[in-house]
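Hi support team,

I submitted a single chain yesterday and got back a structure, but I'm not sure I'm reading the token output correctly. Could someone confirm the output below corresponds to the sequence I sent? I've pasted both exactly as they appear in my results page.

Thanks,
R.
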Amino acid sequence: MFDSETIVHAKKRPIISEKFQKKVNAPSAVIGNTETNYRDTIKVIDIQICLNIHNRVPVGSNTYFKNDIDSIFCYTRLENAGKKKEVAHIWYYKNKQLDRIKYNVKSSNIYRSWTRKTILKTQVGAWRVDIEDSANNVVGSKSFFIMDSEISPR
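Hi R., thanks for writing in. Yes, this is the structure output for that exact sequence:
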């Protein structure tokens, strides 16, 4: 039985300004691609961890969450200038891989996609989602933390 689900949507949109990208990118996101052939690469424009997706937009984005949530989403905006390519979201808990969710990305300036992961109350600690291309190169990564909701701040 799988506790993750993949939901993928795409719609061609103009590329947003760099100023706006800088405003929405969280500091814990690592977005990079060292490939030189532009048409052969997937470019990660944005990665967000959030509580929900509404109308293909992340809701409740953060890097810290309480463990009283049922599930969490990893939302990505990708650019694919070439042919259809396979991408994977790899979910890690305490540096141990829990899931690898693969899906195809069509040619698009902005391809929005997300995966969902069920979070157990006992899964408190450091989490990460890596985005890999079909050659298993990490093209983006986002770290986040699940806190115990029963511990009150001092």
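A quick pointer for reading it: The chain has one helix and twelve strands. Let us know if anything else looks off.

Best,
Support desk
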